[in-house]
Amino acid sequence: MPELKAPQLAQLPPLQAIRVFEAVARHLSFTKAAEELGMTQAAASYQIKLLEERIGSPLFLRQPRQIVLTEPGQRLAPAVSEAFSLLSSAYSAARGGADGVLCVSTLLTFASNWLAQHLGSFQLSHPSLAVRVDTSNRVIDFAREDMDIAIRSGSGKWPGVETHLLFKADFTPVLSPALAATIGGVHEPADLFKLPILDPTDIWWREWFALAGVPADELASRTGTSMGAQAYEANAAIAGHGVAILTTALFKTELAAGRLIQPFDLVGDDGHAYWLVYPTARRNVPKIKAFRDWILAEIACA
């Protein structure tokens, strides 16, 4: 076994000060950091003072109602966050197995129409690992937010993270059979203009009609409500309120049950997809590895 070199610990500041800095930088609040670490705000401020004296430069700008990282603080924060992530990963690997809490950030429609329908099999396989799901459309900053994994929609090109393709975010019109029956059925793309169109401002509509070779100028005169999520538009379509344009991979149950029908095989693709995302430095964390292996296998079998 090769000889291990002793780390240059003499050049490191006190670990407690580093731990406090990581928490304050993540929360941008001395109060919240102190509560998380079980210490007083004065004690947290003292640890930051020790660290700033060791570095020789302020790490935070104290403003009346907030604090912000200085330039040295901005350089230090990502490295400290990654170091703690690596330490946590090594500790988890040493213990073996995946347990604790897995925090997943995902889009509302993916959560309600895919994850909620499949997550039970993951929990059966990993009973000691609790899953907490947070739904949001914004891009998660793993360095500042308490999230392990995210499901994102986009190009898949984000710095500092590992990405795994889940499925394409393609799109096509769907509607309820009852609504289609009101005009004797939908036989050609132009027939859709005889019906209410949910969110006619959605760019997917113009792209899909262009693929179908049908002018879409009429969309500009249509009024409609933008519901902000495919799940809501699907519910409106099932209720017969109009035609929605959706990613069918998220509505297989509704299509299979006949609550929705897809009148045309024509599917649009703007290059976006759904991706599994997590910090590169945490790719070997047992709970992240367990979820990654499960979801990729689950989607491959779907």
UniProtKB/TrEMBL annotation:
It holds the Pfam family LysR_substrate. Signal peptide: none annotated. InterPro entries: LysR-type_TF_proteobact-type (IPR058163), LysR_HTH_N (IPR000847), LysR_subst-bd (IPR005119), WH-like_DNA-bd_sf (IPR036388), WH_DNA-bd_sf (IPR036390). Residues 13-70 form the HTH lysR-type domain. PROSITE patterns: HTH_LYSR (PS50931). The keyword Manganese does not apply. GO terms for biological process: DNA-templated transcription. One of its GO terms (molecular function) is DNA-binding transcription factor activity. SUPFAM superfamilies: Periplasmic binding protein-like II, Winged helix' DNA-binding domain. Keywords: DNA-binding, Transcription, Transcription regulation. Belongs to the LysR transcriptional regulatory family. PANTHER family: HTH-TYPE TRANSCRIPTIONAL REGULATOR (PTHR30537), HTH-TYPE TRANSCRIPTIONAL REGULATOR TRPI (PTHR30537:SF74). This is LysR family transcriptional regulator. It comes from Mesorhizobium neociceri.
